[in-house]
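The following record pairs a protein chain with its ligand, zinc ion.
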Amino acid sequence: MNGIDANDTRTEPAASRPSVAAGTRGARTARFLRAARIACRGLADAWLARTCFLCDQALVASEDGLCAHCESDLPGARCARCPVCAARAEAPRQPCAGCERAAPAYDRTVVLADYAPPLDRALLALKFGGEIALAAPLGRALGRALCPAPGIASARAPGPALAALEPADWLTAVPLAPRRLAERGFNQSAVIARAAAGEVGARFESRVLRKTRESPPQSSLALADRRANLESVFAARGDLRNRTIVVVDDVMTSGATLHACALALKTAGAQAVINLVVARTR
Ligand SMILES: [Zn+2]
Ligand SMILES: [Zn+2]
């Protein structure tokens, strides 16, 4: 859980401060050198802090947030999944029986891995422990899963890989109800989505979806009741015609929340809806 401490307020020791009078050429040079020294130290700190957020091992230049070992070893990172709902599947690229029986409103789901250690702990630390620094590496990893670099097949993106999103396409996040947002101070999915959008060069639109009212926690309901619980809880706004909307969420369980979001987006004219999820429960 290493990271650069944004609140680092260390100052230079008094002995190293320039003693020449302010305003002279020497003082200006000293100020410049001091600023340069602080900048260099910041760069060095940033470089030294490049460790994997799951195992704390140092990252090599090609790695980002997660080391290659952790990223490929996340449970479920490379298993076959239903292309629609990302449930684990025997036959990849075929919709699972559940999606065949009752097709959800979304078209596709891309997940990073299973909701299992160590990813579950990272998400809990982000959501309830205020470890917001975890959102950026998670979001960037999600971006790479959605739009792999050319020539790199994404095991996490069943079905045809997305080479890139169109300029008209937007990333957004599952919204929190206003009271929940006020309590927590941030929407973890939105912070992740912003980083994912940066990774794929797409636009992040935080206000596409809004939650119109509080609903009983999904976890308190049977799977069969979860869709009904969320009926008309979400509303979409903006001109969504001819746009693919990518909806980011931290955890997907029954898919009922993402189904309700996709329903609102499609009602508002969205052409296609893709879920982009950090962790999928099994
Ligand atoms: Zn690692
Ligand atoms: Zn499915």
